[in-house]
Amino acid sequence: MAGRLNAARLVALLIWLGICTFAAHAQDVAPSLVGRWDAATRSAGGIGQIIELRADGSMTHWYAAMVEFTYVVQGSLLITSFTSTSGGAMEQTTTEIRFEGDALIQKSAQSGAETRMTRKRAGGPHDAPIVGVWAYAHEAGGTAFMMYTADGRLIFRLPMRADRGRWSVSGDKLTIGPMPATARLTYRAEGDQLLLTDDQGKQVTYTRAELLEFQ
């Protein structure tokens, strides 16, 4: 009889622990935060932050060169345009392009130097051949990624440093780290925007990332 009671208590304890574990996991991971986020604020040199929060509680924080352009293709010419968020004249660059299977080759109109890119993501069935994500070895080191969208935007990312850790939420507090130090931030998620505020009151706005190919 005592053995049966002990077994019953053990089963009840295991069920209770399972419920507590499920509840804790539900508190620790907020579905609206899961995904990759690009910081809207960049340094004068175009360096910004990217964070990826995964459903399993793991996370990665990158420092990366982050630039957005617009582009048009005219025959074999690719014309890219850049305007600084701080103002100033528009800068345009023209290169010759051609496609060889899953490779995009850009040839500088000034030097004649060629850059070979490998396709990482294709566009839709009715999109132009250039639409999608391309990767290449950057002259500064590392692998750069360029995303050409169907609506004429060009997103450039060059990951420079990655720190990995864990994340969790409690109420409106987001804890991430170590990266290299653990940070406890106040967060507010609204659609495709995430606002993070540190304990000094500094706010950084993130937007949900479109370019996801680098890990």
Write the layout of secondary structure elements.
Blueprint: H1 2-28, E1 35-39, E2 47-53, E3 58-74, E4 77-82, E5 91-100, E6 103-108, E7 114-122, E8 132-137, E9 143-148, E10 153-170, E11 173-177, E12 183-190, E13 193-197, E14 203-208
Antiparallel strand pairs: 1-2, 1-14, 2-3, 3-4, 3-10, 4-5, 5-6, 6-7, 7-8, 8-9, 9-10, 10-11, 11-12, 12-13, 13-14
Structural features, described:
With 215 residues, the protein is mainly beta. The protein has a domain at 64-160: Lipocalin (Beta Barrel), CATH 2.40.128. The chain is 13% helix and 53% strand. The chain has one helix and 14 strands; from the N terminus they run H-E-E-E-E-E-E-E-E-E-E-E-E-E-E. It has one helix spanning 2-28, and strands at 35-39, 47-53, 58-74, 77-82, 91-100, 103-108, 114-122, 132-137, 143-148, 153-170, 173-177, 183-190, 193-197, 203-208. It starts with a helix and ends in a 7-residue tail after the last strand.
Core attributes:
Lipocalin, 215 residues, 14-stranded antiparallel sheet, disordered N terminus, single chain, mainly beta, 14 strands
